[in-house]
Amino acid sequence: MTTQAESSTSNSLNAVKWVLAIAILIAATVGNRYAPELLPQLSVWVRAVVLIVMGVGALALTLTTTQGQAFLKLLKEAQIEARRVVWPTKDETLQTTMIVFAVVVVMSLVLWGVDSLFGWMISAVIG
Q: How many whole angstroms separate alpha carbon 28 and alpha carbon 53?
């Protein structure tokens, strides 16, 4: 097979997988909506399990597509990148939090003062 033929087959298969996944999600939604009317003996727990299984099935189906494989690769690379990050220590986090808290308090006092000044000036002009 040529590369173009493989690509065409791959794209067709991806399209079929996406349509099936969307159909599964639509069937789950519609089934959940009409299940109490059509099958009143069906427990809520059974409906929940069926919904979860159908959702996981649709997700698994989408992860087998080209876009799904690219997404999995992105997740793996993000996990590797997150391990490389140098996270702050507990002391650094506490110090930064306290600094942010202090700045917020100071700025709120400044804004309160400016607001009071403007209020006083407006009341003096209006009289």
A: 10
Question: Could you state, in order of their start, the residue ranges of all structural domains in the chain?
Answer: 3-84, 88-127
* Dist. CA 62–CA 17, nearest whole Å: 7
Amino acid 121 reads M
Look at residue 5 and give its three-state secondary structure: helix
CA dist 23 and 17 (Å) reads 10
The pTM for the full model equals 0.62
State the CB neighbour count (10 A cutoff) for residue 54: 17
Of the candidate ranges 27-41, 43-57, 99-113, the one whose mean pLDDT is the lowest = 27-41
Do 27 and 46 form a contact (C-beta atoms < 8 A)? no
